[in-house]
Amino acid sequence: MIERRTLLRAAGATAMAPLLARPALAQSATGQGAALKIGMITTLSGPGGYLGQDIRDAFALAMEMEDGRLGGTPVRLLVEDDALKPGQGKQIAERFLKNEKIRLMTGVVFSNVLGAVAPDVLDSDGIYVSPNASPSTFAGRECHRNFWSVAWQNDSLHESAGQAAMNLGFKRMFILAPNYQAGKDAITGFKRFYKGQIAGEVYTRLDQTDYAAEMAQIRAAQPDAVYQFHPGGLGIAFLKQYVQAGLSATTPMVLASPSMDSTTLAAVGEAALGINVTAQWNSDFDNPASRRFVEAFTAKYNRTPTYYAQQGYDTALAIGAALKGTGGSVEDLAAFRKAMQPASFESPRGRFAFGANQHPVQDWFLLKVERGADGKPALVTKGKVLENHTDAYAGQCRM
Amino acid sequence: MVLLLEQLLNGLQLGVMLFLLAAGLTLVFGIMGVINLAHGSLYMVGAFAAAWVAAQTGSALLAVPAGLAAAALAGMAVELLVLRRLYARDHLDQVLATFGLILFFNQGAILLFGRQPLFVDIPEGLRGAVEIIPGVPYPAYRLAILAVGLLVAAGLYGLIRHTRTGMLVRAGATHREMVRALGVDVRKLYTLVFGLGALLAGLAGLMAGPIFSVQVGMGEQILIMTFVVVVIGGIGSVRGALAGALLVGLVDTLLRAYLPALLRGAMQGPDADALAAGLASMGVYLLMALVLLLRPRGLFPAHA
How far apart are CA A111 and CA B53, in angstroms? Predict the structure, then answer.
């Protein structure tokens, strides 16, 4: 009896394993003593670790391209791993605020961590610039004058996918997402722009690895196409099993960018050919800013930058533009806001502006996985899906 | 009807996958009295080693022994270096030590392979689909997993029932002290059993590579379900592990497949889907609670 109880307790402990803290990383890019400190709280460990890694690396790259400065101001980047644990993110934020006296923070990848970090930063008159997570909380009624998103508002990812499904002429869609907040938001966002028929709506588990049951349901429903939101490893498993079930030959797929980035693509391989993806940027964009970024990133890190890398890079550029306007000071918040709002930097995305709620107003593009010049599957830009797209919550924001 | 058959196959296939992991875990716990939280890490070692060798050589035939050997060797090394010092200690110490091993293995995998998930392809001959039921193509690879799992189950039965080593294993599971008193080299037996458990975990890992995602932390995801299987089947019983694994696989798959449709008959569409998803994910744990209520020592208790 005792043995079984211990075993059950042990099972509980295992559930915590991926969340356990890893040693903190602090990295200083410049040696100057008077450099402005920027705090980066991001996810570097666990299955979602490569997202934070790309954001960190691209941010550091932007600093390096300007010799350790952003907008002419010497800066020092302090990086800590939140391990996808809201409590840990909050502790790091408090330490950054109280011990390091940092006023400017960025880095959070996941919305649940942001929910714990951002209020602390904003309440103590700090500035938070988001390179990824941007839940509806900070975009609508609760928007904050010191909160900026350089990525997108979460819903836009799925709204653009919904619009893409309309444009591609799919009449009956089968949609799937994990049963948690971001999964439900994905379904809501998709349906906001998709006006066709829903052939089936399935919520999967966040810890699920086997999707055979779902594959059988999709085959039975015979939809025109499938939309699914499964970030990271979940998406890799889903896609592989989709192909193995023989569904990719009959049923096309539409995805939002988090379910198909260049890292996922490398892990899925040939199986991804033909999949439609919507994103705000892609590594094949033909503009000088994008070419410069992709070249520098590939040269330094020897891998193709993901969307996350591009977002981290833009975050550094946006902060640089604001610092240039204030002469390197973050003390006068009104002056910082005034310098930040025009977004006077050259984004690899092309057109980029901040809306009234300080979230991006930007274009969304349709990408398709095709065989690249080297024979390997690559994401190829096909055209625009949405133009000057703002988010559904901007109207509720009163600054 | 055809759909039900397909879902039953899916459930069985998930079941044998869980069985490969649970068999090792239950043996180690039953015979050595050690809770090995790092069992999932051995599964990860098997998957990574096979994926790496397959990528380097392009040969699935070489990847299989590589994955098996890596997992078995890692397992035996863990037993010799760490667990051997812990047999006499409290369960809490063992849990702490093997929990530490999880962190060690995960960080090691990050250092060696990076955070990006690895790509694994299905071996050439198993790529297509087979029409076992008319009109429903079923992936050949999944059938192969099912076959391998059942073969291993039969092999384990033969090993444990009809060989001298198996006799010692059985004796060790029921009367540990007596086996020691009869002069059997228990230390060697322990290393062997642990290596066998690790080998099976590695087999599960290398077979999971082409369908799941090969990445750091993949072991912990599936280990929770494995613990449920071990508790349902009865700790220390391989027969129980097989029964528990198939039961858990079937219940989990069928609930996910049919609960939403059942609930949709009774309530609004989106609400039914969300509620069904919640209930389906609780299903195996409810099953475990039920089994514990009716048969507190599991379905096939080893220490009868």
Answer: 37
DSSP per residue, A274-306 = T-EEEES--TT--SHHHHHHHHHHHHHHSS---
- How many separate domains does chain B show? 1
Decide if B6 is inside a domain. Answer: yes
Asked if B221 lies within 8 A of A207 by C-beta distance, the reply is: yes
CB A151 within 8 A of CB A360: yes
Cβ distance of B117 and A210 shorter than 8 Å:
no
Q: Where are the alpha helices (DSSP H) in chain B?
A: 2-27, 39-57, 60-81, 91-113, 140-162, 164-174, 176-181, 186-208, 218-233, 238-264, 269-294
Question: How remote is the C-alpha of A45 from its chain's centroid?
Answer: 16
B226 within domain boundaries: no
Distance CA A344, CA A239 (A): 39
Is 3.40.50.2300 the CATH number for A9-152+286-354?
A: yes
- Nearest by CB: B211 against A46, A233, A244: A244
pLDDT tens for B216-275 read: 888 887 898 999 999 999 888 888 999 999 999 999 999 988 887 788 777 776 677 778
- Cβ atoms of B243 and B298 closer than 8 Å: no
B223 in a domain, yes or no?
no
Nearest-CB residue to A266 (from B13, B116, B230): B116
**Which one of A213, A234, A268 has the shortest CB-CB distance to B257?**
A213
Question: Distance from B289 to chain A by nearest Cα, in Å?
Answer: 11
B contact test, residue of A244, A306, A308 with most B CBs within 10 A: A244
Tell me the fold of A155-279+364-395: Rossmann fold (3.40.50)
A25 touches chain B (CB under 8 A): no
Judge if A9-152+286-354 and A155-279+364-395 fold alike in CATH terms: yes
Q: In whole angstroms, give the CA distance from residue A377 to residue A264.
A: 11
Q: Domain limits of chain A? A: 9-152+286-354, 155-279+364-395
pLDDT digits (tens, 9 = 90+) for A69-106: 999 999 999 999 998 889 999 999 999 999 999 999 99
State the residue for tokens 């010692």. Answer: B168
